[in-house]
Amino acid sequence: MPDDLVLAIDQGTSSTKCLLVDPAGAVVASGSAAVPIRYPRPGWVEQDADEILGSVLTAAASCLDGVGRGRVKAVGLSTQRESAVVWDKRTGRPAGPVLGWQDQRAQPVCDALRAKGRASRVRDLSGLPLDPMFSAAKLRWLLDRTPDAAVGTVDSWLVFALTGSHRIESGNASRTQLLDVRAGSWSPELLDLFGIPSTALPEVTPSSGDLGVISERGGVLAGLPITAVLGDSHAALYAHGSQAAGGVKVTYGTGSSVMRLGAVDDPRVCLTVAWNDSLAAEGNIRSSGATVAWLAAFLGLSAGQIGQLAAEASSDGVFLVPGFGGLAAPWWDDTAVGLISGLTLGSTPAQVARAAIESIAHQVTDVIDVMGPADCLLADGGAGGNDVLMQIQADLTGVPVRRARTTNLSALGVAFLAGGRTPPISYDEFRPQPGVFSHQRDAWRSAVARARTPHDGSIA
């Protein structure tokens, strides 16, 4: 049947995936391409804007190979979020590195604003705690080195590179820390605080609609309309459809995004734009899958082997607090450190592996405790495929965990929005086991307290 497929482009931290999705939500073709990540100094995380664009074109070409172009009616774009991009206004070429969402080099920008007593005002306007994870401080760092340039996030770079229009989707804009989250427009006060000229920024647009037609630079994509753009975590929430109304979505990736529709009045979690005019509360966890990857490399094992060790062991009093570069929600403490506690001469790698898996569930539960009760947790993302983690999560939160059986929720979510349909998805359910887990939670909080350094900038 002609004109019935949507091409979803999911541009993530480590790779770009493309899916061709039919009206029923089935994937009929796919393609992917890796994206290099560089760590030039401790706390610095960089990518290359041209390599990101190249990965999109490569993955799209692979996905569309052998598919009649007449069958593709629209393109949806899901992207990594807070990463900061800079390019030359005249040539349209990248003018510096992409500063990844994990990059910490702009911490001094945040420290200076905090010292001036502006942290609470930034939080009030943007809905976000003052933290270098968000784009504003990174954009300031880039503009200090490339004045009179154009800046944006990954979605705005790709939309510019593919269509020639300097635009940013409202949900991604809300993650920059420059948007007045309730007004849905750039805040003159925040621009002044961070020293960002409005002329450098893209136009804020809705998440869906006529968002541009791809030019010849898009290769196999040329001539296709972009009808939806979402941040990756927002897209995953959208894919859950009606289930999202009473649940909390947890995307288990390199980090984790804990998100629920509607505002939560608590400074320990973020207020963000879910899509278009809908608001959501979100808690961001810096290290989830990254913790497992770190431990695997440290022990000379694979991530799968870490999962196997964890499934066969008890942590037995060992706790791993993954404060690599600080802790995000609900602590927002950039001075926190990584810590393994409870070790004895009898401790084994299997106990530490179990503690690494448990650290993911504990961090998510910390955020849920702040957000308030939920009917269920809606799980997706790579680390969510671990059954042990899902059961621990259900036990610690005391509510069922429903894990999407379908993978690639971010790509599917933006495909659903771009195509104007939200087909239902199916779930595996993990129900809480009988037992009292409060002692584990108390011991976890004690471990977190040991990993933290009290200071005026921390929220709790």
From TrEMBL:
Gene3D superfamilies: 3.30.420.40. Residues 6-237 form the Carbohydrate kinase FGGY N-terminal domain. One of its GO terms (cellular component) is cytosol. GO terms for molecular function: ATP binding; glycerol kinase activity. Keywords: ATP-binding, Kinase, Nucleotide-binding, Transferase. InterPro entries: ATPase_NBD, Carb_kinase_FGGY, Carb_kinase_FGGY_CS, FGGY_C, FGGY_N. PROSITE patterns: FGGY_KINASES_2. The keyword Nucleus does not apply. Residues 249-419 form the Carbohydrate kinase FGGY C-terminal domain. It holds the Pfam family FGGY_N. GO terms for biological process: glycerol catabolic process. Belongs to the FGGY kinase family. This is ATP:glycerol 3-phosphotransferase.
